[in-house]
Amino acid sequence: MSIINSFDDKSKPLVDISAFILERKECADICIVSFSKHVLDMFLENYKYEIVGFVATANGPIHVYLFEEDNIKMLFYMSPIGSSPASTIMYEVHYAFGPTKFIVYGSCGILDKEKCSGKLIVPFESYRDEGLSYHYMQPSDYIAIKNYKKIANIFDKYKLPYVIGKSWTTDAIYMETMNKANKRRSEGCISVEMESSGLQALSNFYGLDLYTFFFPADLLDGDSWEKANLGGDSERNLQQETFKVAMLIAKEI
Q1: 3-state secondary structure string, the chain?
Q2: Measured between alpha carbons, how far is 235 from 176 in angstroms, rounded to an integer?
Q3: CA-based angle 152:215:247, to the nearest 5?
Q4: Fewer beta carbons within 10 Å, N or C terminal of the chain?
Q5: Can you give the pLDDT at residue 1?
Q6: Residues with Cβ within 8 Å of residue 181, at least 6 apart in sequence
Q7: Residues 3-32: pLDDT tens digits?
Q8: Relative orientation angle of helices 37-46 and 233-252, to the nearest 10 degrees
């Protein structure tokens, strides 16, 4: 059996989440998720919030915050980076605190500078170059991102610049080789990131709604890598500004 044929929906998991999370709350149906410490710091400084609890990791707790904007109750937390930890934490937050709609956003690498420059990126499919998704659905090269049209309609409503395309989800940032990038680009991928295919597979399995979008950071559309916005003040500002975009999505869904 091929290693990617890992999906098993015929037998029950040996480790059940109820063994780790003993208390469940229904706090809010919508949750905004960022991967940025800059966003977390901005949130803690500018919003009134309540810490409703945390999910535990070996690296320390991930706190979950409840806040309200325009009479909409929402949760917020900072996710670890990578498909496996991000998906696991998302499921635990859903189980412990009740959200079923997750707005997940962050930076991405750009495979097509001409199409993506100055725009938000809305993936409609993601290439499954990570490990987690194969445990939550049958093998395939790509997974459809279900709510991309809803995000595009919201961006249209608020006249936000965006582009729709395929994304490449990978676990291995240091093995984004030129041949792989060229292949993904030839298939229509315009961005590369580390979470979306896994998050969508897990969302499909548990009946959750994923709303995901990215903004441009580093460039991988040539013969070499360019840092561009990654890690500088411009990325920090974009991380914080796009939190407002996530809030617009929350108000519309």
Answers
A1: CCCCCCCCCCCCCCCCHHHCCCCCCCCCCEEEEECCHHHHHHHHHHCCEEEEEEECCCCCCEEEEEEEECCEEEEEEECCCCHHHHHHHHHHHHHHHCCCEEEEEEEEEECCHHHHCCCEEEEEEEEEECCHHHHCCCCCCEEECCCHHHHHHHHHHCCCCEEEEEEEEECCHHHCCHHHHHHHHHCCEEEEECCHHHHHHHHHHHCCEEEEEEEEEEECCCCCCECCCCCCHHHHHHHHHHHHHHHHHHHHC
A2: 21
A3: 60
A4: N
A5: 60
A6: 111, 192, 220
A7: 888 899 999 999 999 999 999 999 999 999
A8: 60
Question: Which of 61, 66, 80, 72 is closest to 27 using CA atoms?
Answer: 66
Which of 129, 133, 134 lies closest to 2, judged by CA? 134
For helices 196-206 and 83-97, give the axis angle rounded to 10 degrees. 30
CA distance 21 to 183: 42
Instruction: With beta carbons less than 8 A apart as the criterion, state whether 176 and 109 touch.
Output: yes
pLDDT digits (tens, 9 = 90+) for 167-210: 999 999 999 999 999 999 999 999 999 999 999 999 999 999 99
Handedness of CA 251, 84, 208, 49 (dihedral sign): negative
Tokens coding 137: 């659905």
User: Among residues 213, 207, 224, which one has the least CA distance to residue 252?
Assistant: 213
| Residue 101 near residue 30 (C-beta atoms within 8 A) | yes
185-78-37-211 Cα dihedral, nearest 10 degrees: 40
